[in-house]
Amino acid sequence: MTAQSSRETTSAAPRNRFERRRAETRRALVRAARQILAETGDTSASIQTIAERADVGFGSFYNHFVSKTELFDAAVTDALEEFGRAFDERLDGIDDPAELVAAGFRLSARMADSHPELMRVLRHRGLGHIHSGTGLAPRALRDLERGTATGRFTPVDATVALSAMGGSLLSLVELRFARPDLDGDETAARMAELVLRMLGVAAPEAHEVARRPLPGPVG
């Protein structure tokens, strides 16, 4: 190794460590914001409170975000992307758009138990992100458009249909937290069946599709 390359390696190492620490600080702030959103949905917590929960210095906040609004938006985006990735992993290999829609509702109901923090963020803040470019929205829009293009669904305005599906999903999540005594799987299957019928799937088939075995492990 030449002296020059040695100096470059030495000078590069602190920069890499700095970037790793910086990224971890940002993740800690986002995690803290997600926890607050999951607990109360309240965004009035002070920056000092957020920093203390994240276990970072107060000044670190402004190294990453210009305002609390930006942080909480990042926290919701982070939660929605985690939600979307979980669905991608579980539903990989399913080609039928109707089955994908139904499975999405049923998995959401189960995730109220397996991923409660994530689902509480969705419960408190999901309405404003039904047409978001992250999370489930672009995936649902893709399935709607594919279902319409292949004749699986009745031709509808995809944006309007996405609004109806998103509202139904958020209502299902709310119901799961408000009425934990209900059979979550059956309630979700019934909601999925109604949505499929709204999209033009015949009633008997909608009933069957909404109760197909889910791929992967339960939860």
UniProtKB/TrEMBL annotation:
Entry keyword Transcription: yes
InterPro entries named in the record: Homeodomain-like_sf, HTH-type_TetR-like_transc_reg, HTH_TetR, Tet_transcr_reg_TetR-rel_C_sf, TetR_C_40
DNA-binding region: 46-65
Residue ranges of domain HTH tetR-type in the record: 23-83
Cited PROSITE patterns: HTH_TETR_2
Positions of the UniProt region annotated as Disordered: 1-20
Compositional bias segments (type: Polar residues): 1-11
Superkingdom as given in the UniProt entry: Bacteria
Keywords: DNA-binding, Transcription, Transcription regulation
The UniProt record lists the keyword Electron transport: no
Protein name per Swiss-Prot or TrEMBL: TetR/AcrR family transcriptional regulator
Taxonomy of the source species: Bacteria, Bacillati, Actinomycetota, Actinomycetes, Kitasatosporales
